[in-house]
Write a structure and sequence with these properties.
The protein is of the alpha/beta class and about 675 residues long. Helix content is about 20%, strand content about 35%. The mean pLDDT is about 85.
Length: about 675
Amino acid sequence: MTGTVLFDPLLPWAVLAVLAVLVVGGVVLALMRGLSGWALRGAAGLVVLAALSGPALQQEDRAPLSDIVILAEDQSASQRLRDRPAQSISAADALEAALIARDNTEVRRITVPDGDEDAGTRLMTALSDALAEEPRAQVAGLIAISDGQVHDPDLPVDLPAPLHLLLSGKDTDWDRRLLVKNAPAFAIIGEAVTLTLRIEDSGAAPTDVGLAPLDISVDGAPAQRFNVPIGQDIDLPVTLPHGGRNVIQFSVPEAEGELTDRNNTALIQMNGVRDRLRVLLVSGEPHAGGRTWRNLLKSDSSVDLVHFTILRPPEKQDGVPVGELSLIAFPTRELFLEKIDDFDLIIFDRYKRRGILPALYLDNVARYIRDGGAVLVAAGPDFAGADSLFRSPLGAVLPAQPSARVIEEAYLPKVSEIGERHPVTTALPNAGDWGRWLRQIDVDPRSGTTVMEGVDDRPLLVLDRVGEGRVALLASDHAWLWNRGYEGGGPQLELLRRLAHWMMKEPELEEEALTAIATGQSMRILRRTLEGTAPPVTITGPDGTTTQLDLSEGAPGQFETRFDGPEIGLYRLENGDQSTVIGLGPAAPKEFEATIATPDILGERVAATRGGVLRLQGGTPRIRAVREGRPAAGRGWIGITPRNAYETQDVRQMSLLPPWLVLLLAAGLITGAWLREGRR
């Protein structure tokens, strides 16, 4: 029980001050006039002033509250290395037991797990959350058991008691890690992009090692090994081998004695894109669709177009002197012998043999296709005649043979059954609700895939692979009707774009492909195939374990499933003859960017509370009680500040000057002063 004198004035303190001045003035006047009762009169005034100030005695019944110590145990990934888990748990148990054994002390033991989405160790966040649930007046200390690698040290948290950091690990620990800088998300195919690599050692690393082996692997292929210096930035030029996603893995073998190999790997995923699409368009003669082809190709800023229209074939004799002609001579040798490999796509639009391109040049075009080039033939009526391109060396690589018949009737182009599953023609805009064409060249397919059909289901668009290259045959010269809006038009631009990108071997338009899209540690697996079914996909994890998952059809020719990776790293996927690799999460998570225990990150926060940093390697520290404001740590011990907090259970107040007593005292003093002065 405690007692306190309180004041509850009946008048404002300013008024009481004025009354006090009047009382003092009256006493001074009485002295000046020589009145013998001045002291009694002054005492009476003081009694009245005291009564007006409302003095009261407040008595409280208090129950003491226990001191609270928050014990934070770091259980993030870096704390699970070697003997750190056992070391941390042992120290936490010993400290908890020592604190509970103290009188009037409670322990709040919390854990600090890995942060969400590779956020690292959020120790200060965990302490802030714990403090929000406890009365600050009872918190006597905060103890963190961690390696000191904290990723939120600057979080503004008002710590009401000393903070102590107990470091796990050993002073002999060392680690090696691999860093990759300047890794862009995209790179141009065929152009080198420079990555900066660095291998660095931290902690008590051996000093007699100057080189470290570095393995480099692309898309899961066998790795190539190089010896690189430690502690130096290395500029590495990388040229992407293909379009789409390229997975490049850099890894350093685990060295003897290092703390972990989880930061010895860097996984870079870059998308390869083409800078410009170089297209050669050769029009055999002017016709209504020629300008449409040109406009479509020129409208794409990523296309470099070279267009030649043969206006004056060799057999044309009109008597005009050659020197007066304003035509540009067709540079056949330069285009079809010297620079043919510079083009990504060659389009023959209603071209026929006229002696302009000798058989040698067309044979070189066939070679160009087999070596990886792409040719699109838009056939006109001449394709069915004696001057057809099919009757040249180029015919050996064309997927269909003309029957010499030209069908002149209106028909609606439609996607074939297999074309519904082919990425070039699947889900074209308006789903077949487009205008008719008026001419088709009758051809008999010899190879390849017929993705569009015309009159009486005859082949209209045939795609084929020849050697390393690709060839497409469009058996009509009326595709331009769609662009002109005839009977509503059609998706000519989208069809041409897909066709060109398929011929350029863009991964998203491969008819047989296995891809995966990663989101965190989850992946969406996509299998595209022309077959009606797809076998289960086999997933090989970073640790070598395999998992088989069935695929479900989401769209014609597209099968998919989802997989949650149990750990971060490189996963290999196989389905039939298709395979790919994908990385889940960062190869070196934030928890493993730095693994050596250090007091530097939290040093300022600990010092600001007068706490201490001790290593658990030297044993679990003792607990002492220290006064607030005093140093709270020393050799082998840490301190907590008892808060002496209490809970008030009952409050009672008693007036020190009840009215009857004030009246009695005031009247008695005044009467005494009057009698003393009257007797005189």
